[in-house]
Design brief:
Largest sheet: 9 strands, mixed
Radius of gyration: 22 Å
CATH architecture of the largest domain: 3-Layer(aba) Sandwich
Number of strands: 22
Number of helices: 13
CATH class of the largest domain: Alpha Beta
Distance between the termini: 37 Å
Helix content: 25-40%
Low-confidence stretches: none
Mean pLDDT: 95
Strand order of the largest sheet: 11-10-12-13-22-21-20-17-18
Length: about 425
Amino acid sequence: MKGVVLAGTASGVGKTVAALSVLSGLQRAGYDPQPAKAGPDFIDPSHHAVVCDRPSRSLDPWLSGAEGCRRNYWRGSGDVCVVEGMMGLYDGTTSTAAVAETLGLPVVLVVDAKAGMESVAATALGFEAYADEAGRDVDVVGVLAQRAHGGRHADGIREALPEGLAYLGRIPPLSGLSIPDRHLGLHMGAEAPVDTGALREASEHVDIERLVGIAREPPRPEVMEPSGPETDATVAVADDGAFCFSYPATVERLRERASVVTFSPVAGDPLPACDGVYLPGGYPELHGGALAAGGTLDELGERAAEGLPVLGECGGLMALAETLTDTDGRTHRMAGVLPADVRMCERYQALDHVALRARNDALTADAGTTVRGHEFHYSEADVAPDATFAFDVERGDGIADGKDGLTEHRTLGTYAHVHADSGAFDRFLDRL
């Protein structure tokens, strides 16, 4: 499976629309594309999945290590992988450049050309030259002009590009390509899919065959799958609009070692018969009333008090708290397992890659070990003075006072999201 990275000059240049247009173009040309996303994002991959009807691979060396990043790439299928970058090419703890270096993939730079022609070439040349100056093994091979018109506009960009930087086409400014956003980013793909007709029209202006020609196949990892015995356990995974932030590799890893059943707390589903529960992140603040009235969280609270292992990440942590106050000031009763009251804020409270060191043996880590993850949330938690925490925060913000991992009974709630290749979910399964 050959691959290519679509990287931006900065956030907001239209990388997601460009990636969706390229994926659509690959389909139109008879290819079987595999989408992927650099970094820890959950939202952009949901749009990839709508277009390609397969999970988008999350590629983040901080979360999974370099070998885990390669493993996750090769868990995909298809014949051409399109990796959408995060922020600008060189920005972030795990930058798009780091992902390209880890996988040895060429980079196509997405440049906002709305108000530029020759300057687009100058921008691309600067990004290419910076790799050499900074000693980075990043190969910028071409340009995809976002919001570019045809005729003189496109010709001016193409003619200005120096030898070695290919013109891969343009994404025209079409009204059907807009995606609404809110806190945490764009709307999810299932909520606001991009118009397929607009994507098809945009893809007609991308040189698909030239893009496929520059794609490369990264080296395969020596060990394709992490080791671990199968178990007889059943894990119940929440999956609905409130709990929609889970990496495909995480659920895949759970299925490799255990049975997985899904349920919807928003719909009021009864808790399935299980040996453990995983509540991913998502948007519980948008479904507070349904969660409070549905009965699932009440049952979950009862089972947790009896010792059922429960793991909640970010939105899952919020649902396991005593109460959740949404952005309209309405307070909803939650599961009441963890001694905290959570409230939404007007701006984000944390955004970073994190490292958590286990104080003692915890549901997802052995004592003294460090788990890497990612946090991005608009809520804050008012925690009881006698609350017990599982982790000291070595990097990031955590829940309170440099600590994360509220724990009660055999329940653990963190603001951090972790990846399957961190080993956290293997520890979780070992504890069931």
